[in-house]
UniProtKB/TrEMBL annotation:
<comment type="similarity">
    <text>Belongs to the IFI44 family.</text>
</comment>
<keyword id="KW-0963">Cytoplasm</keyword>
<comment type="function">
    <text>This protein aggregates to form microtubular structures.</text>
</comment>
<protein>
    <recommendedName>
        <fullName>Interferon-induced protein 44</fullName>
    </recommendedName>
</protein>
<dbReference type="GO" id="GO:0005737">
    <property type="term" value="C:cytoplasm"/>
</dbReference>
<dbReference type="GO" id="GO:0009615">
    <property type="term" value="P:response to virus"/>
</dbReference>
<dbReference type="Pfam" id="PF07534">
    <property type="entry name" value="TLD"/>
</dbReference>
<feature type="domain" description="TLDc">
    <location>
        <begin position="1"/>
        <end position="152"/>
    </location>
</feature>
<dbReference type="InterPro" id="IPR027417">
    <property type="entry name" value="P-loop_NTPase"/>
</dbReference>
<dbReference type="InterPro" id="IPR006571">
    <property type="entry name" value="TLDc_dom"/>
</dbReference>
Amino acid sequence: MAVTTRLTWLHEKILQNHFGGKRLSLLYKGSVHGFRNGVLLDRCCNQGPTLTVIYSEDHIIGAYAEESYQEGKYASIILFALQDTKISEWKLGLCTPETLFCCDVTKYNSPTNFQIDGRNRKVIMDLKTMENLGLAQNCTISIQDYEVFRCEDSLDERKIKGVIELRKSLLPALRTYEPYGSLVQQIRILLLGPIGAGKSSFFNSVRSVFQGHVTHQALVGTNTTGISEKYRTYSIRDGKDGKYLPFILCDSLGLSEKGGGLCRDDIFYILNGNIRDRYQFNPMESIKLNHHDYIDSPSLKDRIHCVAFVFDASSIQYFSSQMIVKIKRIRRELVNAGVVHVALLTHVDSMDLITKGDLIEIERCEPVRSKVMNDALRKHIFWGMLLQSHTSVYKNKNKQLLGLRRITKLLK
């Protein structure tokens, strides 16, 4: 039977995030392997950096060793106390594992203001240490259980290789994608969403992957009235002199709660293919039928085949009732028109407790699933959601993979 940790996923994420985004691999558990510190050291020495987590009735405390435990050798120890979702730390300094775990206090000249006594099931610390960790000054804390974890890089060589291989398989799949029935050569994907949600940034990220360098063809910024003021249709070349890829990303003026955003009637014209590339939006009124950028008889290739609602994952909880009503109304029109649509959530890597290793399979990351889904359910805007990072993807293989996966799912 597998030995499992007593840590909740939230506490595990907090510890991972606090100690450099490490992945925690359980080495030792007192209630399973016994409260014998000599056995603990035999099992946990020479394992690289380790995290010891101690559970008492009222506290979760512990020690992080920056170097591998080795018999008689000093290691830098950082003490911590985890209370609810807040973590405090105190640098204990250099200490031998034998002293830290009360194996032989007299043999090694190490500080004794914090000791883990497994045999007697207690932690002993001085008043200053208790104060620095924000604990009640009790000096002795009883141990219900303790666990020792090996702290591993969240992206080890095996995972990095897996990311590279998956990226290699996604790139040719996107290059050779053929729209159903070959009725059009390129699928048009419209990006809709509130001002500042990251529509233009998403396009730049995808384009950077295929161009092989960071690009900023679409202007991005934080202007409250939006940066994208024109309707833009972006075809992407595969490399500097390559062929056009089988999809076009269409950018528009952002949605606004009040004035200044995209007119609802313009959305209908965009979906129908009536609006020409580079049309200058007027937030006060929709395009006129006699406008020189109005297409009277659009062909199938001019129409929108898929819509991605782009939302900033950290801002869903702050959507006003007006914005929710607007999104729901647009979605109803898409359903009636038979247009496939999904929600694409940006800035997920800026959320609390996210580590670089989480970006490989961000949809399975519990903090993301919990927060995003709860926010979406509260606002009643839940449907198929795709997740996207915030910062530039070109130099980060994980974020490249995330962008490629999003495009692949949009085309499906």
